[in-house]
Amino acid sequence: MPTPRLRADDPRVVRALEIWDSLGRPRYSDVAEALGIEWKKAQRWIQCGLDARNHGPAQDAYAPDIGDLGSSKPRVRVRAYNPMAARDLPSRRVVVIGDMHRRPGMEIEPMRWIGRYVAETRPDNVIQIGDFFDMESCEFHSAPGSASQQQRPAFQEDIESGEESLDEYHREVGIGEIPHDVVLGNHEFRVWRLEEAAPNLKGTLTLQLDQFFARYRWRVTPYRHWLFMEGVGFTHVPISIMGKPIGGRYPEQNIGNQSTHSIVFGHTHRWNHVTVPKIGINNSITVTNVGSAMPYGYIPKYADGATTGYSYGVAELRLSGGRVEGSNFLSMLDLQERYK
Q: Who is most buried in 230, 267, 280, 290, counting CB within 10 A?
């Protein structure tokens, strides 16, 4: 059993303190000898009595200075806790059109279906995530003089195929009625690479590309750069510390581990939406891969025979407080059934 707590009014303590006071030069051993106990026990009894004697009067005499407490507000400590600092911020609904790889001869109907969907749902913004063009006219993969190189379309034919596509789309969506943005992809970047390789073309092809999007009032964000809306970053593909596109079979988790903000991207043509836990006020970011808006089942020439797992359709996202708070992927088959 635990030893009972020693009190100052205990008779043993009182008697030990009397002997202590009666001695001229008191020692614990003298008190212990008088009481017939161990000196450590005598020390404990005497200290208990002395503590009560020294602190008691001071405690009794203490009177807190409360001042004019009745006329002033008491000081209250409050621990503020907001589980989501961004919950009252505005939201924005956007339709994101994934990689399209438009090229001469590609079927035009998906452009009409997407246009009708945008015209019907009237989002706040429309964003095309890059690789609108395939730009086979500017590719560098074919060997010089090969049959593949000789079969490439001319640059002007690529531009004309884009005009045909956006003419069909904007028959459904009036030009300038809904803000449109395009974040250029690596296939548009082929134009810059060609101009770099052929300095005599400097500025001629890129100017035509800029003028093409300007005719339809699409604002342009360069390849490798970011377009931000409601704190969410849109880019064709995030770039690694080594200056390379972050890809692989499942790039979303890798991107989320490295990112400091929510990201919407394309490039891999596969729809996915993940939430990545983070340390911070909102506790997470989102990473959204919007898939592709190519015709259903279409495989670009460069990916022929590969294990693709492509997703064909468009994404509708709800942005708020730096995250994608709502996401929906509408399959190209659904668009076909709805608007054909």
A: 290
Can you give the pLDDT of all 340 residues of the chain as single tens digits?
556 677 878 888 888 888 878 887 778 788 888 888 887 888 888 888 877 777 665 555 555 555 555 555 666 665 555 555 556 678 999 999 999 999 999 999 999 999 999 999 999 999 999 999 999 999 877 767 677 777 889 999 999 999 999 999 999 999 999 999 999 999 999 999 999 998 898 899 999 999 999 999 999 999 999 999 999 999 999 999 888 999 888 899 999 999 999 999 999 999 999 999 998 777 899 999 999 999 999 988 777 766 668 999 999 999 999 999 999 999 999 999 999 8
Distances (CA, A) of 155 to 107, 131, 249: 19, 15, 32
**In whole angstroms, what is the distance from residue 26 CA to residue 47 CA?**
13
- Domains in the chain: how many in total? 2
Length of the chain: 340
- What are the structure tokens assigned to 23, written together? 């001695």
DSSP annotation of 326 reads: E
Same domain, 326 and 270: yes
- 127: domain CATH number? 3.60.21.10
For residue 328, is it within any domain?
yes
Phi-psi category of residue 209: left, alpha or beta, with phi > 0 → left and psi -120 to 50 → alpha: alpha
Nearest by Cα to 66 from 74, 55, 58: 74
Domain extent, residue 20, equals 11-54
Statement to judge: residues 29 and 148 lie in one domain:
no
